[in-house]
Design goal:
alpha+beta, 2-enoyl-CoA Hydratase, Chain A, domain 1, six-stranded mixed beta sheet, five-stranded antiparallel beta sheet, globular
Length: about 400
């Protein structure tokens, strides 16, 4: 049974969380539109006398080479006890997927898939950071809010160079993720490459069980500040409840804080935008071989369409977060402040496979209402305001201060 998509924590979506993979196999945001039963059926029909037709060219690839290598290993490898046939199959699938050189198209083993599903429910175990491959480097999309990674100083765009002293080039991406995650209470040492630092930084992090609230909010005098940490399974319900309570408070303005939110379900992004905008496009989706774009519109009556709005983003805002920020910006519903966002402009669908594993496939690109593709670029804020490491350490937040100031001055 298919589910609505995670964009990622990519319209789909993979920081605060989601169709990227988190250190504990979380990922930015990811579409889930094709049923797994149909996928398995189609896969079976493709096979014909060891040949797979390539639909775009009608070229056929002879699978005999694969079976020749399999037979040679099975019959002649010096240590037969090392032949774990299920792992060999998984390895072959990973290699096939890796050849696409798309960091958002990934294969998850049953254990990894379960971890990913748990992350969407808001419960994680590990260090709490969302990772992706960018330019063949394991890159932090974002640490999760209140996570061990964030407390230890992990930042968006950090490059992981070593795990417990072992160079990451020794591992596949999935293996590196598994090395980083682990039982709560244990520690992992990450060697980090960071812009502006001449030498790698060694950061020790103790793993924990991480419970993530999708939505948190508070009143700052007459301004409601909503922190949206992820677009997960409970986001619509939690956000709707927050809006109900904010309406009773008669807030004069709303700050929507999307910093360190790595994405999640596409439906969640649509629901959020639909609370602020009465009508119009949320996002356009360009799929393979489609004659026209799929245009997704707001889905209901906006309850806070008239309340002044500011959206805050940073480098850890990705996928579904960027859809929300892009829609608000293009519709001129409010202003966007902060830093350039991550830049994940593709849509993934997740297929749950017969043994509990899954395949996340990039199936489309998404565009803002004004037809902007943000891949590798991100959303550019209307007002660029940085928050430095020193600011964070001293609990100074110039971005939030600027947002509240703007709302008070323009009421």
């Amino acid at each position: 049974m298919k589910k609505s998509a995670y964009l990622t924590k990519e319209t789909t979506s993979g920081p605060k969380i989601l169709g990227l993979i988190i250190l504990i196999l979380f990922v930015f945001a990811l579409g889930w539109n094709v049923g797994s039963n149909q996928t398995r059926q189609n896969g079976t029909n493709l096979l014909n006398d060891n040949q797979i037709p390539i639909s775009t060219t009608n070229e056929k690839v002879d699978m005999q080479l694969f079976w020749d290598v399999w037979s040679l290993l099975a019959g002649r490898y010096v240590d037969p006890e090392a032949l774990e046939y299920k792992e060999m199959i998984y390895g072959a699938i990973r290699g096939m997927v890796f050849s696409l050189e798309d960091p958002y198209t990934t294969f998850l083993t049953p254990k990894q898939n379960k971890d990913f599903q748990d992350s969407l429910e808001g419960t994680l175990e590990g260090i709490g950071a969302e990772l992706t491959l960018r330019n063949e480097l394991i890159t932090v999309v974002s640490p999760l809010k209140n996570s061990p990674a964030k407390r230890a100083g992990i930042q968006p765009e950090d490059i992981i160079l070593k795990i417990d002293g072992v160079d990451v080039t020794e591992y596949t991406f999935e293996q590196a993720v598994m090395k980083i995650r682990g039982p709560k209470g244990t520690k992992v040492i990450l060697s980090i490459g960071r812009k502006g630092e001449n030498e790698p930084l060694d950061i020790s992090i103790q793993r924990e069980t991480i419970n993530i609230n999708s939505v948190e909010w508070e009143m700052n005098k007459d301004i409601a500040v909503i922190e949206l940490n992820t677009f997960g399974a409970k986001t619509k319900e939690e956000f709707s409840k927050a809006i109900n309570e904010i309406l009773t408070k008669r807030a004069d303005g709303i700050v929507l804080d999307l910093r360190f939110n790595g994405g999640g379900y596409l439906d969640g992004a649509i629901d959020i935008v639909s609370e602020f905008i009465d009508k119009g496009k949320v996002v356009s989706v360009k799929k393979r071989n489609a004659t026209e774009d799929e245009v997704i519109y707001v889905n209901g009556k906006a309850r806070v369409a008239s309340i002044p709005l500011v959206v805050i983003i940073n480098k850890g805002s990705a996928s579904a977060s960027e859809i929300v920020a892009g829609a608000i910006q293009d519709h001129k519903r409010g202003i966007v402040i902060g830093e350039q966002s991550f830049g994940k402009g593709t849509v993934q669908e997740v297929e749950n496979l017969i043994d509990g594993s899954s395949l996340r496939i990039t199936v489309a690109k998404w565009y803002t209402p004004n037809n902007q593709n943000i891949s590798e670029v991100g959303i550019t804020p209307d007002n660029i305001i940085e928050r430095t490491i020193e600011d964070i350490e001293n609990e100074i937040d110039p971005q939030l201060e600027a947002a509240i100031k703007h709302l008070k001055e323009n009421n």
